[in-house]
Amino acid sequence: MKTLAERLKYAMEVLPPKKIKGVELARAVGVKPPSVSDWLSGKSKTMEGENLLRAAKHLSVNPVWLATGSGEIKLEKKSALGTDLDINQQEMIPVKTWDSSTPLDEDEVEIPFFKDFSFACGSGAIGEALLNEKRKLRMSKATLRNKAIDKKNAVATTSSGDSMSPTIKDGDTIHIDLGRKTVKDGKIFAVCHGGLFLAKRLYNLPMGGIRIVSDNTTEYPEIHLTAQEIKDQQFEIVGWIWQISTMENW
Given Cys at both, which of 7, 135, 167, 213 links 201, Cβ 3.0 to 4.6 Å? Predict the structure, then answer.
């Protein structure tokens, strides 16, 4: 089983006494069902660390095997008391510490990380901001390659507000592809609108118009702009938001 999709299907359909449905796994991992569908179809070839551990725990398989195909499929180690260990105790995956002086791995790149990207909106200074930003995030070249994202177009920033809740929460890290600015209906984009930096779902309207939609529709009604209003209100698409990293608060 060379791919994540093959291993995941095996763990869901062959190993358990009863087949595990995608909806059940999505609920256990804490993601939406389309994410599981992407893993099973091979559209997403990797899982983020926390998602991987939760999926492995729910499926009672070795997270290293699920991620790479290496090692035992199921963990059957015993503690000194003869009881089964929790899956997180059984397989400890080492985490490397690093700082700005740590050399990049062969499969790593650094991308600009903005704690506040809003200052670049409305001033035509996004390119200048990219050149001047010193904070960086590290990520795998393979991740960008799988999404066909050019490294020079990859940036990340911290989200603010609750207009896209529950999809994007206040303080989440959003990853933006500056090279994708053509509206694909329903996708989430980073935009500048009247000098404000926002994350919104976009839809095309006739005659060059745009429909701007928040996931929190109760507090943030959708907006329709004509082609002329797009110009008048300084509406600009910064890029496609392709990844959202959520950190839970205690």
Answer: 213
pLDDT, tens digit (0-9, with 9 covering 90-100), for 77-104: 443 333 343 434 444 444 444 455 566 6
Q: How far apart are CA 154 and CA 110, in angstroms?
A: 9
Tokens representing 57 are 């725990």
Instruction: Provide the token pair at 153.
Output: 């177009």
Measured in degrees and rounded to the nearest 5, phi and psi for residue 45 equal -95, -10
Give the chain's domains with CATH numbers.
Answer: 4-90 (1.10.260.40), 108-245 (2.10.109.10)
Q: Are 186 and 213 in contact (CB under 8 A)?
A: no
- Is pTM, for the whole model, over 0.85? no
Contact 225, 209 (CB under 8 A): yes
Positive or negative, the CA dihedral 3, 11, 246, 183 is: positive
Q: Where residue 119 falls among pLDDT bands split at 50, 70, 90?
A: low
Contact 4, 39 (CB under 8 A): yes
- HEC sequence for the chain: CCCHHHHHHHHHHCCCCCCCCHHHHHHHHCCCHHHHHHHHHCCCCCCCHHHHHHHHHHHCCCHHHHHHCCCCCCCCCECCCCCECCHHHHCCCCCCCCCCCCCCCCCEEEEEEECCCHHHCCCCCHHHHHHHCCCEEEEEHHHHHHCCCCHHHEEEEECCCCCCCCCCCCCCEEEEECCCCCCCCCCEEEEEECCEEEEEEEEEEHHHEEEEECCCCCCCCCEEECHHHHHHCCEEEEEEEEEEECCCCC
